[in-house]
């Protein structure tokens, strides 16, 4: 069945008005993103968008915090912060993010999985997902025999590029754990704007561990895939971003950062 898929790119400049602007309602299947990945790669870690505002756009998402202080997971409307110590906390709502992506928890397809790992998810992508050319929400819930994650330590100015920070990233291993993988798939044409392909974070079911996902071995569980057909981008009005160089191809840097 052919579907006409429309990806609407709406760029919203984030104004620091004294009165809150009236916000347009968004479609349910909208991926809402704060800043772009090439800004984070350049070391633009100053938060500019308060995390309580992310909750207006969805109950599911990933990102980071002001100064790159850990990995963010938004799950069932709660925002979790995995610090570089491995500790998980619920951050103050007024903390700002320099980069995040959220959406409502839409579910277009659920598939049961057993003995399944990250490489299989990448290799068998075309049998699980209808196309590589739209955005998806991805959630995998289940029992994992092994998970490896990382977080990043909070940074002070002058900020180093992301690739230099992740070279010394603290990593965490989990064995025989229940949990949730949370994240998004972005199509190839999103290069520079977001991580193309899969960008996933992990949170244990008891909410005591997690981070940016590097490896997983699922024993059994299920994957939920949500088709996201609309895109809403929120950019800063001031700060490093305005003087950034967005002409470079940072694909190789991003590949190093994601490992
Ligand atoms: Zn991440």
SSE order, one letter for each helix or strand? EEHEHEEEEEEEHHEHEEEEH
- Rounded to an integer, what's the Rg over CA atoms? 17 Å
| Count of all domains | 1
CATH superfamily: Hypothetical protein, similar to alpha- acetolactate decarboxylase, domain 2
Bound molecules: zinc ion
- For the biggest β-sheet, the strand order reads 1-15-2-9-4-5-6-7
Helix content: 10-25%
Arithmetic mean of pLDDT: 92
CATH class: Alpha Beta
Number of DSSP strands? 15
Low-confidence stretches: 5-17
The appropriate CATH architecture is 2-Layer Sandwich
What is the CATH topology descriptor? 60s Ribosomal Protein L30, Chain: A
Which secondary-structure class do the elements indicate? Answer: mainly beta
Beta content comes to 35-45%
Q: What is the overall silhouette?
A: globular
Largest sheet: 8 strands, mixed
End-to-end C-alpha gap: 36 Å
How many distinct helices?
Answer: 6
Short description:
Helices cover 12% and strands 42% of the residues. The chain is mainly beta and 259 residues long. The protein has one domain: 2-Layer Sandwich (60s Ribosomal Protein L30, Chain: A).
Describe this protein's structure.
This protein has one domain: Hypothetical protein, similar to alpha- acetolactate decarboxylase, domain 2 (60s Ribosomal Protein L30, Chain: A, 2-Layer Sandwich), CATH 3.30.1330. It has 6 helices and 15 strands. The chain has helices at 37-41, 51-54, 118-123, 125-128, 162-166, 251-258, and strands spanning 8-13, 30-34, 49-50, 60-64, 71-75, 78-82, 88-89, 96-97, 100-103, 109-117, 135-150, 171-186, 197-204, 210-228, 230-235. It starts with 7 loop residues before the first strand and ends with a helix. 38% of the residues are buried. The structure holds zinc ion. Zinc ion binds at residues 62, 71, 199, 201, 212. Zinc ion is lined by residues 62, 71, 199, 201, 212.
